[in-house]
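Key idea: predict the complex, not the pieces.
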Amino acid sequence: DAKTTQPTSMDCAEGRAANLPCNHSTISGNEYVYWYRQIHSQGPQYIIHGLKNNETNEMASLIITEDRKSSTLILPHATLRDTAVYYCIVREGTSGTYKYIFGTGTRLKVLA
Amino acid sequence: DTGVSQNPRHKITKRGQNVTFRCDPISEHNRLYWYRQTLGQGPEFLTYFQNEAQLEKSRLLSDRFSAERPKGSFSTLEIQRTEQGDSAMYLCASSTRDRVTEAFFGQGTRLTVV
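Result:
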């Protein structure tokens, strides 16, 4: 089972920041938080990952709380092309498998 | 294009037939994953390879499903005696063997069993 919970859906106005929350209260000390998104009928696309420090790349920022029990993905200036399902994943792994377990994600709709 | 390649993109088959899908990972990626995704759900883990070794299989992978990665490069996923419940998108992903790394997904093979 997925180790994360996310809201089912969110709307965001075009040009505004989209803040997508994720709860991962059972995360262990060496597990990373990954974010992927999936645009309709395409394979999931990697966005960003982090352990405990905030991370930023050309796509998004990831804010992880100090206790690491939750995180927020921030798309600073959402566009219509950011409409997608966003998945927050705590990467499991024992003995080196490190598989990605997806939940049902947050369906983000960016509105014109 | 140096991304993960999956073929075919679409497959329609009659119930009871066998189907085989192919995944070509990114060159030099040691790890290869197979997932299945049904409408409205997130991808479900099926199995995982490191090089040619199949290291983990989900309970979702019934005895009608078999996956191989014979030379540690491309992989195949075969479904025997297909059922309508097998209709789904089958996704392949690959990554390096680094502990902290992202997986790259292909565009998937959409299977429809009629």
